[in-house]
Amino acid sequence: MKRPAKETEESARKISRRAALLGGAQLAFAGVLVLRMRSLQLGQSSEYRLLADENRINIRLLPPSRGLILDRNGVTIASNVQNYRIVLVREDAGEPREALERLAQLIPLSEPEIERAEREILRHRPFVPVTIIDQLSWEEVARVAANAPALPGITPEVGQTRFYPYGADFAHAVGYVGPVSERDLAERENPEPLLMIPRFQIGKIGVERELDDNLRGSAGHRRIEVNAVGREMRELDRQEGDPGTNIELTLDRELQAFSLARLGEESASAVVMEIATGNILALASSPSFDPNLFVRGISIDDYAGLRDNDRRPMSNKTVQGAYPPGSTFKMVTALAALEDGLATPEERVFCPGYLEVSGRRFHCWNRGGHGRVNLVSALSESCDVFFYDMAQRVGIDRINAMAARLGLGIRYDLPLSGVSSGLNPSREWKRARRDAEWVVGDTINASIGQGFVLTTPLQLAVMTARLATNREILPRLVHKLGGVEQPIADQPSLGLSAAGLAQVRRGMSEVSNSNRGTAYSSRIVDATMRMAGKTGSSQVFSITAAERAAGVRRQSQLPWNRRDHALFVAFAPEETPRYAISVVVEHGGGGSSVAAPIARDIILAAQNRGLPPLDAYPRSQRNRIESMINTISEQIGPAAVPTTGRSRA
Amino acid sequence: MSYLEYNVKLTPTGLSKVLYINWALVVLLTAVASVGFLQLYSVAGGDFDRWAGPQMQRFAISLGVMFIVAFVPLWFWRSMAGLGYAVSVVLLLGVEFFGSVGMGAQRWLEIGPLRLQPSEMTKITVIMAMAAYYDWLDPQKVSRPLWVGVAVAMIAIPSFLVLKQPDLGTALLIFGGGAIVMFFAGVSLWYFGGVIGAGGGVITAVFASRGTEWQLLRDYQFRRIDAFLDPSIDPLGASYHINQAMIALGSGGWSGRGFMQGTQSRLNFLPEKHTDFIFNTLAEEFGFVGSVFLLSLYIAVLVVCVISALRAKSRFASLLTLGIAGNFFLYFAVNMAMVMGLAPVVGVPLPLVSYGGSAMLMILIGFGLVQSACVHRPRERA
């Protein structure tokens, strides 16, 4: 098609004009782009640089290693060991199910474990390492490592976990750790970020729990560069955390082990104190359990076994158990009377086997009666009527005050779980809690440690230490914190009259050293180790008139949980007391037959710093004692090494 | 053109055509593509084979195609314009009915072993058709409503088909390319004013339609617009891309964080870092200096094309060259505005730099047409 040249020229001019117009617009737009770049890249660049860094830098916490717990001689009773675990990375391992089944050929993995691991793996992104199993033995890990080429994406890793080399020996005092639970977090106002680390362990009971803040240490951190989906690309820097503080307890590893072994299968407890310092050397509660089970994750069956056992293995009876002290309380009544001059040491009371008070008959344990008894013989033969008589003279107020002076009814501030204050009853207490007035019968019951009175084995040991020294001894459990020795509490004098106290001590001495004493068969013949003590058998159920008429049954004929608690408190050596002990055997029957022999063995072990010396026992008993000690010493094992087995729910 | 004139002017033939290729344009295009190779190498973390290698191969092939297109006489392309346009529309209809779905949009047509993206090709064929149309049409008549209506229909049909795929970015480019040719052809400015006014009305209608049954855009497109208007609405959702892109761009500063040192792209915070957002990786690693350098290269390409268009002797050659250049401008301007947060994210790649073969081939075919117009310009005998 031909067009006149003029037209073509005009259209070309028009194109040029319009090209200039649009070109100008385009340049203007380019100018806008440049201005925008200038404002973003030059004006706000530092702001964006910061945002870019926030994007790429993540901070990961490094768990600190937990402080160790040592005994008084520096023996480690709670340690940290390597925790071998298997970690799987899905993107390298391929199909998780197949990978886990390959792994199951090398290490025992149950079907539920595989299923749980599979679920866990699928919940995370493919590059996230997921712990599929931990607490593995070295052999198992070695097997996995040796087969690494056949197991892509599966790697053994090592972390730290708590281990208690002496197992059950310190389960109650030291306690155990476990992974942080929802409840643990809820208890804390502002939980440390550290506690959010998966599988981080904190103390659950005992010293582990009460001193967790010291033991835990502070977290380290590492700054890592991550990509958009959170995968770690490299570590930028790393600062290790501060390990937790080591704690040295006053407990003595050997004495603790011996005490627990000596208590055997009984539902019982024993507390040994060093009198001069108040240091608790042994805090044994039986039966015990292996705290390592809890660290690994206890199986449902194991837990049910512990929970349903009527001897309550999980309870720390030394401080949680509150028992009627029975006759071990008689020193309190005696001192209350002597201090205020309401009785003299020489005074004699006639015991016909019972005492009538306002029409009610209170029986002595010896139905035939003790005849005429004074303070010393009343203690050594444990005559009840003598103390009924004293009780009527002194009244509950003085008994309550004396009990408090001797350390009963007080909640000691020790880093243990569930420390009980026991019960030192008073008029006010009865009015407030029972909504009733105190009656004389209550006083009479209290005078022999029955009725409302409740004491813990720890309190009885403190009472005994105070009787031995006339000083206000306080129990002490933490010896050193991070190498710094903790102060020993002041021990002001109790101000009890020396003469009165001497009579009480003489009575206690005769308990185990006079042939009329209730614990004579548990005497110590080595004069340098002799003990002075007091038996107690506290009724769990009151004996009804009908039962009494039918004749009081022998303890061995009663069902276990209706038998008397057997108690014994003692200090030794009697001349220069160094150790105080209390032993309580729940439903043991009699203090003299059950508790006193145990106390003798343990206090001899304490004095001998090892096993009890055979020549401290009466010659006639040595054969029997020797075989018993041999049996026990076999039970006291050396420190365990981290076990190979796993137990998991 | 008189016979005499024909004697003194001459169109190059044979191998001598090589001499008349616009070499400045070739150098500039290669420079732009090289920026792309560099950044593709960088965002792949130093892996040449991942993106940079294939991109270089495609560029080499596309450049070869450009030369072939350049050597074919312009009259051939002019006579092919109508056919090309018709084929494009047929293929777009084919996509509509037989196309495969990829990434939530129907874009690909598979014919035997060939995978075609007809919308890419349509960008060029619409410009060719419009240039041919206005070359054919008497310049006196260009502003008459009937002929404007024909032109608008020619643009609107393919734009609508592409929008339906849905591919908003390409539809915009097709529409824009056609409109630019109309503008150069001399259509009265009143029409453009009217269209801009109507556009405002359409935008209002689009927003009014939101949430109703006759909603005009897909939900994700609405979310992208929301994210554009206020990137802080939902930093991890719809606005995530644009926020991360702005961080990459802004953190570059004056001279950037250094080659292969961009954390945003290296650590994958930047989405689509090798395609739509590649400009941000350049801005992050080479800063303001690098960004302005690339923009300058693009402007230089435009300037070279405009000069060539103004020197052209035929209306078809001028309109075609200006149309292709205008399309190229829209390409990079929309992409840059988008990645700088000045426009909603519509999915337009950065021409010659973003990874992708189809777009690169079509762009270079377009410049092949520009070259053809340049080579086959009648010249004074030397």
Layout of helices and strands, plus pairs?
The complex is a heterodimer of chains A (649) and B (382).
Chain A lengths: L4 H39 L1 H12 E6 L6 E2 L5 E14 H4 L2 H9 L6 H13 L5 E8 L1 H9 L7 E10 L13 E3 L2 H6 L13 E3 L2 H5 L1 H5 L3 E7 L5 E8 L7 E3 L3 H11 L4 E7 L5 E7 L4 H6 L3 H9 L8 H4 L9 H10 L9 E3 L2 E4 L2 E4 L7 E3 L1 H6 L3 H22 L21 H8 L5 H8 L9 H13 L8 E4 L2 E2 L12 H16 L18 E7 L6 H5 L15 E8 L6 E7 L5 H18 L13 H14 L14
Parallel strand pairs in A: 2-10
Antiparallel strand pairs in A: 1-8, 2-3, 3-4, 3-5, 6-7, 8-9, 10-17, 11-12, 11-21, 13-16, 14-15, 17-18, 19-20, 20-21
Chain B lengths: L2 H6 E2 L6 H4 L2 H21 L4 H24 L2 H25 L1 E3 L2 E7 L2 E3 L1 H19 L8 H19 L4 H18 L3 H20 L10 H11 L10 H11 L12 H4 L11 H34 L3 H25 L17 H19 L3 E2 L2
Antiparallel strand pairs in B: 1-5, 2-3, 3-4
Fold and architecture overview:
The complex is a heterodimer of chains A (649) and B (382). Chain A is of the alpha+beta class and 649 residues long. Chain A has two domains: 60-249, Penicillin-binding protein 2a (Domain 2), CATH 3.90.1310.10; 253-295 and 312-635, DD-peptidase/beta-lactamase superfamily (Beta-lactamase, 3-Layer(aba) Sandwich), CATH 3.40.710. Helix content of chain A is 39%, strand content 18%. Chain A is built from 23 helices and 21 strands. In chain A, strands 2, 3, 4, 5, 10, 17 and 18 form a seven-stranded mixed β-sheet that branches. In chain A, α16 (384-405) crosses α18. The termini of chain A are far apart. Chain B is mostly helical. Chain B has one domain. In chain B, the strands form two sheets. Chain B has a three-stranded antiparallel β-sheet with strand order 2-3-4, with helices on one face. A two-stranded antiparallel sheet of chain B has the order 1-5. The chains are: A alpha+beta (649), B mainly alpha (382). Chains A and B meet through α1 and α2 of A and α8, α11, α12, α13 and α14 of B.
